[in-house]
Amino acid sequence: MEILIADDQRTTGLALAWALEGMGHVPRLASSGEEAWALLRKGEWRLVITDWVMPGMSGTDLCRLIRSRADRPYVYTIILTGLSGRVNRLEGLDSGADDFLTKPVDHEELKVRISIARRILGVQSELEERNALLRAMASTDPLTGLANRRGFQAAAEALADGGAAGLPHSLISLDVDHFKSYNDTYGHGAGDEALRAVAAILRSSTRRDDLVARVGGEEFAVLLPETNAPTALRRAEAIRRAVASADWPRRPVTISAGVATTRLAWEPGAIAGLLEEADRALYQSKRSGRDRACHAGHPPPSPHVACA
């Protein structure tokens, strides 16, 4: 197990590192709290043993910084100290420490406390994995495996948080044409098969960084980061052709698509306005005869492309 040690006393730190190596662990010695914090910010350390009293950043300061990172995996911290007494222990626990080691370190005690840490981290890792699975399930459409509306909204807002403001982004909103009739004629099982097939075509027709989502019954959306209006319209038309030319076992399936592109800086909440524009363009595609793509305010390049 990789273990980060923070200790300004090199002799003490090296002795602890050698003891941990003898137990089969991989220690890394940092000579200060600041150095340990820099390593924690760069890597995924799950166990830290830190001296309490150090110049500059103390062990309790380091514990508080570790606990302030709510978005990172849990880090088990053990404070190494010669301090004793109830008040000191309470202060250490209040800073976020999980356990204590008393100087000089007893190797048998060290082995037991590391074993406790591994057991607790194992339970914590399992809990983190289950929480991640629940988050994924909450943002995934179970029928197609695509993102659902919630996942789509979250990813779109993350685009703003990720510093992509000012770049052109486009959105394709699309519907399966006459899907209710398809369901009524062939049954809901066949309708589900058609939706899964459309989802597969969308996946194969988009880039790795594009976000494809099923946002309603027969409604899909594709977010195209860093994509201007002409390119987005060509992409929508390519998707339309791919669906129309697919080998459908019962009857031909087509889609209508509406495309919108950002005009101003991308900001949190901008996705709502972009969706409205794309939906208006989608409505224009349907009014123009379906099986076509329309961009809000962009001229049509082909007979299958309408203009809002």
UniProtKB/TrEMBL annotation:
The keyword Phosphoprotein applies. Residues 2-118 form the Response regulatory domain. The modification 4-aspartylphosphate is found at residue 51. GO terms for molecular function: diguanylate cyclase activity. It comes from Aquisphaera giovannonii. GO terms for biological process: cell adhesion involved in single-species biofilm formation; negative regulation of bacterial-type flagellum-dependent cell motility; phosphorelay signal transduction system. CDD domains: GGDEF, REC_OmpR. The keyword Glycosyltransferase does not apply. This is diguanylate cyclase. Residues 167-298 form the GGDEF domain. It comes from the Bacteria. Keywords: Phosphoprotein. It catalyses: 2 GTP = 3',3'-c-di-GMP + 2 diphosphate. Pfam families: GGDEF (PF00990), Response_reg (PF00072).
